[in-house]
Amino acid sequence: MENKKEFVEIIKDNQALIYKVVKVYTDGKAEEQDLYQEIIYQLWKSFASFRNESKLTTWMYRIALNTAIVHLKKEQRKGSQVSIDEQVLNQPDTSDTLKEEQFALLYAQIRKLNSIDKAIVLLYLEGKTHQEISAITGFSTTNVATRLSRIKQKIIAQIK
Amino acid sequence: MELEEMKSLWEEMSSKIEKQSKITDSLILKMTNQNYRRKVNKLMVYEVIGALVCLLGLLFMAVNFYKLDTWYLQVCGLVSALILILLPVFSIKALCRMSRINISENNYQQTLKAYSKGKVQFLMVQKASFYAGAILLVSLLPVMGKLIAGHDFFKVSNIWLVYAISFPFFYYYAVWVSNNYTKSVLEAENMLKELAEVA
């Protein structure tokens, strides 16, 4: 039970992390809910084996990103099992419509990238260093740097 | 929007998200208690049901094989039996490979590689299954005609005409299926190539 309490606190403290991964890897409410649940389920499943050898967020990003790849396209999902309050997956509260559009555009632009670039750019935007990105993704720091400069070009090309 | 602009917008959005603490303890607990694998394995359930149907068909043919009294019905029976054995075996094998990916131990690169490889294999099996299924339809029809109705369809019906009429439809459907699978396989293969470049 102590374990569960600790886990719940970790999820609550880091729900923004899960939220952002879900938003980047899905496009649609049903998919979002499904992936959100699956990430929490997978985190719980591997929580016991988390040995504090890596940073908590490194572990969380790793599980969340892995889950996003494996479970999203495994089958056509038909709604989620746990009904999630719409608010949990809504865009951040803002009365500024222009900002909301910009946030939506931001996600849309990242979603256009392939799976490798998507993860790298997400972690870069989250303020992770090249070393941290490398630890989460398994790509070398040199590769991360090279990919990031290519992503910059891709994004510019997307706009044109 | 350039990457630097994206970053500042992302930070702004992140700080707004941080302020929205909406998930509840009970919701998190529900998600951990959910018997989620049942849903994830839905595809596997379909495959197992399919395998059981194939097995039943196979048993039925094996028990009644002696009733297939001409060489061409026996050939049809053997071809059908072979497909009924191979189809579910390959399909379940490909699905097992996909579900064996270790989410908690792998890093992103390893997961992506394993997933893309599994996807290529699964798509190839699905494509092959489609063609094998079509052959099965052709070979099983006269066999079942003989075993259930006791008629040799090659002698008493216009089975060749049925085959000839349905062939063009099947051909165009097959081309469409092939194009669809080829596109998906290519995407997965490109991902593997790209992963090999960054490795």
Describe the structure concisely.
Chain A: Keywords: Sigma factor, Transcription, Transcription regulation. By secondary structure, chain A is an all-alpha fold.
In whole angstroms, how far apart are the ends of chain B? 29 Å
Q: Shape of chain B from CA axes?
A: elongated
Largest sheet of chain B: none
Q: What do the pLDDT scores of chain A average to? A: 84
Helix and strand sequence of chain B: HHHHHHHH
Largest interface: A-B, 66 and 49 residues
Strand content of chain B: under 5%
Please state the oligomeric state of the protein chains shown. heterodimer
How many domains make up the 3D coordinates of chain A? 2
Indicate the structural class of chain A: mainly alpha
Order of SSEs of chain A, N→C?
HHHHHHHH
What would the principal axes of the Cα set say about the shape of chain A?
globular
With helices defined by DSSP (H or I, 4 residues minimum), what is the helix count of chain B?
8
Mean pLDDT, all residues of chain B: 84
Number of domains of chain B: 1
CATH class of the largest domain in chain A: Mainly Alpha
The Cα radius of gyration of chain A reads: 16 Å
The low-confidence runs of chain A, each spanning 5 or more residues with pLDDT under 50, are 75-80
What is the distance, rounded to the nearest whole angstrom, between the alpha carbons of the first and last residues of chain A? 54 Å
CATH superfamily of the largest domain in chain A: RNA polymerase sigma factor, region 2, helix turn helix motif
